[in-house]
Amino acid sequence: MKKYFITSFTFLLISFISFSQIQTPQPSPSSTLIQKVGLVDVKIEYSRPSMRGRQIFGGLIPYNEVWRTGANQNSKITFSDDVRIGASKLSKGTYSIYTRPSLDSWELILYKKTDNWGLPSNWDESQIALSTIAYSYALPFQIETFTIALNNLNNNGATLDFFWENTLVSFGLNTLTKEKTISSIEKTLDESTNSQDYYKAAVFYLEENLDINMAKSWIDKCFELRKDPPYWMLNQKALIYLAFGDKEGALKTANQGLAMAKETKLKDSIKTLSDTVEYVLNN
After folding, report:
1. Into how many domains does the chain fold?
2. Count of other CB atoms within 10 angstroms of residue 101
3. DSSP of the chain, one letter per residue?
4. Which one of 72, 134, 202, 283 has the minimum C-beta count within 10 Å?
5. Does residue 136 have a pLDDT over 80?
6. How crowded is the C-beta side of 139, counted as CA atoms within 13 Å?
7. pTM over 0.85
8. What's the CA gap between 198 and 59, in Å, rounded?
9. Is it the case that residue 84 has pLDDT exceeding 60?
10. Are 233 and 199 within 8 A, CB to CB?
């Protein structure tokens, strides 16, 4: 009985100690950013140190030396498909993010090995998948916590931005959407294509300022196949007709869309079509 009591007491004591550990905030909390850019899924995983009254660039982080670009485990970036950063092509995959800050520019280095804690003990040039340089800019305010972001999203890419202290560095990210989408359109459009695919192909060609003759033929085919097009399709058809040079047809289509939008009583939809009518009239 005494042995049982001692064993039970010891177990309770250990349990109490294990469950009474003090929890405190991490000085550099981890962050994960997942973003669809064009047709590519981009994932960024990194830890975010803060200034805490310290001089960062030229102080805590020396100029012209490779920086781990974050804290704790490797900062990593993953692309679901091939991309281009700056002028360099990069295959899909996961890479460690390193940078080399200088006074007026940064070098971005994407490294194939991702299991280092900080900088690799033996830096291997053959593991560099990409290296590119961009100018840095002084901000008129301070950013307390280190931030990596994907901004200025568009059909074909975004900017990969680094913010800290009063510094911004922005690298152009091209997700090669135009090439991939044109290839997809060429492979997909045939006699069995549905109206939605014709619509998407036509709008893409309009937005990317490609062959407007093809865009018009595809939007016409879409409307042949779809007898009850919604107002938002009429809006895009009007814009395509205007770009094609058929202002009369564009205005007629835009007014049809506006009448349908008014039936929905949705203010945003009505405004969109009203703006399109005005745009057609003024161009």
Report:
1. 2
2. 24
3. -HHHHHHHHHHHHHHHHHHT------SS-EEEEEEEETTEEEEEEEE--B-TT--TBTTTB-TTS-B-SSSSSPPEEEESS-EEETTEEE-SEEEEEEEEE-SSEEEEEEES----SSS-SS--GGGEEEEEEEEEEEEEEEEEEEEEEEEEEETTEEEEEEEEEEEEEEEEEE--HHHHHHHHHHHH-STT--HHHHHHHHHHHHHTT--HHHHHHHHHHHHHH-SS--HHHHHHHHHHHHHHT-HHHHHHHHHHHHHHHHHHT-HHHHHHHHHHHHHHHT-
4. 283
5. yes
6. 13
7. no
8. 56
9. yes
10. yes
Report the C-alpha gap between 269 and 272 in whole angstroms: 5
Q: Which residues lie closer than 8 Å to 115 by C-beta, 6 or more apart?
A: 74
Domain with 57 in it:
30-175
The whole-number pLDDT of residue 10 equals 52
| pLDDT-derived band at 190, boundaries 50, 70, 90 | confident
- Whether 24 maps to a domain, the answer reads no
Which pLDDT belongs to residue 9? 47
Q: Give the C-alpha separation, 155 to 204, whole Å.
A: 9
pLDDT, position 20: 55
Same domain, 232 and 167: no
Task: Give the torsion through C-alpha atoms of 218, 221, 222, 227, to 10 deg.
Answer: 160
User: Where residue 235 sits, what CATH number does that domain have?
Assistant: 1.25.40.10
**Pair 82, 138 in one domain:** yes
pLDDT averaged over every residue in the chain = 91
Structure tokens at 35: 């973003």
- pLDDT at residue 282 is higher than 90: yes
The structure tokens listed for 275 are 């703006």
Tokens of 240: 């395509």
